[in-house]
Amino acid sequence: MSGSTAPSRKRQDPDPQAFSWAEARARLSDLGEGRINLAFEALDRHMDGPAAERTALRFLARDSLEARDISYRALNERANRFANVLDELGIRPGERVYGLSQRIPDLYAAFFGAIKHGCVFTPLFPAFGPEPIRQRVEIGEPTVLVTTERLYRRKVAEWITQTPCLREVLLIGDVSDVDEAPENTRDAGALMDRASSQYSTRPMAPDAPVLLHFTSGTTGTPKGALHVHEAVITHHVTGQYALDLRPGDVYWCTADPGWVTGTSYGMIAPLTNGTTLVVDEAEFDAERWYRILQDQAVKVWYTAPTAIRMLMRQGPELARAHDLSTLRFLASVGEPLNPEAVHWGREVIGLPFHDNWWQTETGGIMIANRPGLPIRPGSMGKPIPGIEAAIARQGESGLQILHEPDQTGELVLKQGWPSMFRGYLNQEERYLKCFDGEWYLTGDLARRDADGYYWFIGRTDDVIKSAGHLIGPFEVESALLEHPAVAEAGVIGVPDEVAGETVKAFVTLKPGHAPDKALQKELLGLARQRLGPAVAPRQIEFRDQLPRTRSGKIMRRLLRARELGLPEGDLSTLEGGSND
């Protein structure tokens, strides 16, 4: 049985005019003199109430569907033990701790333990190869690396002696006998077992650094975006307003903790809101995912458009073979969600997916199809309470805000929300270029309709300029995805002597469809019918797969670089490789 025929009542949409960040701050703890600690809000704050014995993590190992429950109290004590280990090793507040691990419980303990101690934590994606890991270590200069023995041997050991900043390598997960353990590493589990389970979480200034998230640029080295402790205010309220999180909910965010989504909404927001967080060590498998949704009685599910499309490829029968009736709210993140996925969710699962928009730099969800708002498929939604967004263009006198609806321009946000990033590590000039007066420049083109919904057009460097028209790749890709044969589509602009640029589409097909000229002609006709000849692609090329980041975004810039023979830029986030 699939679907929720009578889902429980959704949260009423809050009045943006009645919201203030000061009031949101007051919902959390004051550790004296206005100080705060992100880990305290996620764990310690629950210790004096009934939530202490509630399940915080519901862990499923890679080769099993049997869950192991870890309570808030147990996770807090394990994090305390890790904080004490850092203290005993002489690691000081403010020093950086990197985490490189599969999704296992002690990664979560290390994350919150480091933050309790006042350290700055950097999550790394375990599928990165040795060079991207080394590059991020050289940029961020961590003192401690928390990793597994297997990842250490495969991806770190060969270059670690050349990075003197790393004083400690702490191994979590299964560790070999002492005689066989890698040289210059310590068994973190054994150290934690001997450490005290009591620790006084360190009060921090609201603007003290807590997270360093790396994000790839079009060219050059990765950028390290710095976030601060008061970012937890945004995580907490957006968990409620955008994801409908409620105490006691079973919640599953499928994003890996190595990405900002996997920390902001796969660690922090669910625990500050007292939910039970499903943690699956295994990678995507459609049957397994449906089993988890069914067996763990998941209520709120936050996943990526890529994963949704992969489920759509499997057909509706697999979904309908499972009881998904406990689901109350579905949300999507990572790239714009095509309308077809919204309709598919409603038809097959019984609930629509709610798209939302944010960036590594914003630290939390900024615009969303919120639980209390009608969904407009294909739209990013409306700004979260406390967020002022606008559409702008650069004019002769500087940045000009476009007040009339349905005008295309750059999406900008007024500064002042707590999770706004506070710098790019060692790149102050690059950071300052992200702002124009009081406005943060997102680099995304969008439009706002007459009802205040925002619609994504594309990155400023993705937009195609053809014969005077500004064409957003997303709208062309969405039109192609309406065809039942199309699994994925990526669209770029290619040079044209007459038009300046014309649209070229790269398409992957669902199983059972042949990439022949007849289908190519059919797709071109569909696009012309939906979009008009000025916007529709002139060329369609079939591919077995499209280049994507590991978080699921189609890399249009890489399609364009390979098509035109241009430099490919930073490829460290390109999908591929192994999680070993």
From TrEMBL:
One of its GO terms (cellular component) is cytosol. Transmembrane segments: none annotated. InterPro entries: AMP-bd_C, AMP-bd_C_sf, AMP-binding_CS, AMP-dep_synth/lig_dom, ANL_N_sf. It holds the Pfam family AMP-binding_C. Residues 53-425 form the AMP-dependent synthetase/ligase domain. Its EC number is 6.2.1.1. Keywords: Acetylation, ATP-binding, Ligase, Nucleotide-binding. It is an enzyme of class 6 (ligase). Residues 475-553 form the AMP-binding enzyme C-terminal domain. NCBIfam families: PRK04319.1. This is acetate--CoA ligase.
